[in-house]
Amino acid sequence: MDSDGDAGGAVRLLEVTKRHGRGSAAVTALDDLTVDFAAGSFTAIMGPSGSGKSTLLQCAAGLDLPDTGDVRLDGVELTRLGEAGRARLRRERVGFVFQAFNLLPALTAEQNVALPLRLAGRRVPRAALRGALAAVGLEDRARHRPSELSGGQQQRVAIARALLHRPAVLFADEPTGALDTTSARRMLGTLRGLTDRDGQTVVMVTHDPIAAAHADRVLFLADGRIVGAMERPTAEGVAARMTQLEQAA
Ligand SMILES: Nc1ncnc2c1ncn2[C@@H]1O[C@H](COP(=O)(O)OP(=O)(O)OP(=O)(O)O)[C@@H](O)[C@H]1O
After folding, report:
1. Looking at ligand 1, which residue's alpha carbon is closest to its atom 25?
2. Ligand 1 mean position, distance from CA 47 (Å)
3. Are 176 and 208 in contact (CB under 8 A)?
4. Ligand 1 midpoint to CA 84 (Å)
5. Which end of the chain, N or C, is less packed with Cβ atoms under 10 Å?
6. CB 162 within 8 A of CB 95
7. Using one digit for the tens of pLDDT, what is the confidence trace for 85-133?
8. Whole-structure pTM value
9. Higher model confidence: residue 100 or residue 76?
């Protein structure tokens, strides 16, 4: 590891504190938090409601800025960038998948995948488009509209869209929240495959111990701090740890 301590790190948060609100209503969402997400790793973030998971994702992805501390994404200190610089960094190096798929109903799967790059004025090579759909197992659904796809397939289109520009990190906020069990399992298999096959760095917030068990590592958050980590997690182990945290909350 070099003197910056970021060797191999796709994302690093260093002593990050983030408060929401002002005065007596202020809430410390992240409290002097330091964490590294290694390149090519799949991390799940868990914690009781209000523990700071979404805030962590927003700060790590450059969607929000910490009050103090530094965030480095793919070698770039994004806390030193202005709004335009952060927007460019997000567009070029970050992929985002949310619980809501946010696909446009009038567009086909491949048009939805291409849309963000087209809106940014970039040409989208056909091979890249096909490659992104193939990476999520949907190459045969390219011409289907969202209404002709299952919920799980729609979420995989959203993942293909997030992957098209080959982001350094794919952030996923409750990506299985709106899916049935079978679709959720397939979606998690897709994320797992992206890390195993392509070395894609994935950071996922979830409430579901079964989802978290697909990751290489689970980080547990409470009151804006990391209070534990589990390597090679099992659903049972994660569930037991979450029960402890929720009883303590
Ligand atoms: N815009 C905001 N204004 C004021 N307080 C906020 C705001 N956003 C978040 N908070 C507070 O910051 C804390 C952390 O919120 P955050 O959404 O990061 O938690 P979370 O772990 O993602 O929660 P959940 O699992 O319920 O989605 C909570 O106490 C929340 O109420």
Report:
1. 49
2. 12
3. yes
4. 25
5. N
6. yes
7. 999 999 889 999 988 888 999 999 999 999 988 988 889 999 999 999 9
8. 0.91
9. 76
CATH architecture, domain defined by 9-248: 3-Layer(aba) Sandwich (3.40)
Q: Which two tokens stand for residue 131?
A: 């490659």
Q: What is the pLDDT of residue 70?
A: 96
DSSP alpha helix (H) spans, the chain: 53-60, 83-93, 109-119, 126-135, 151-163, 181-198, 209-212, 235-248
> Which residue is associated with the tokens 């970050």?
94
pLDDT score recorded for residue 248: 83
Euclidean distance between CA atoms 116 and 42, whole angstroms: 24
* 227-247 tens-digit pLDDT: 999 999 999 999 999 999 888
Q: What angle do CA 13, 87, 204 make, to 5 degrees?
A: 45
Which atom of ligand 1 is found nearest the CA of 221? 21
- Asked if residue 190 has its Cβ within 6 Å of ligand 1, the reply is no
Atom of ligand 1 nearest to the CA of 205: 22
pLDDT computed for residue 8 by the predictor: 57
Centre of ligand 1 from the C-alpha of residue 166, in Å = 29
Residue nearest to atom 30 of ligand 1 (CA): 50
Distance of CA 129 to the CA centre of its chain: 21
Quick check: 76 pLDDT over 80? Answer: yes
For ligand 1, is residue 206 a contact (CB within 6 Å)?
Answer: no
For the residues 126-153, what does the mean pLDDT come to? 93
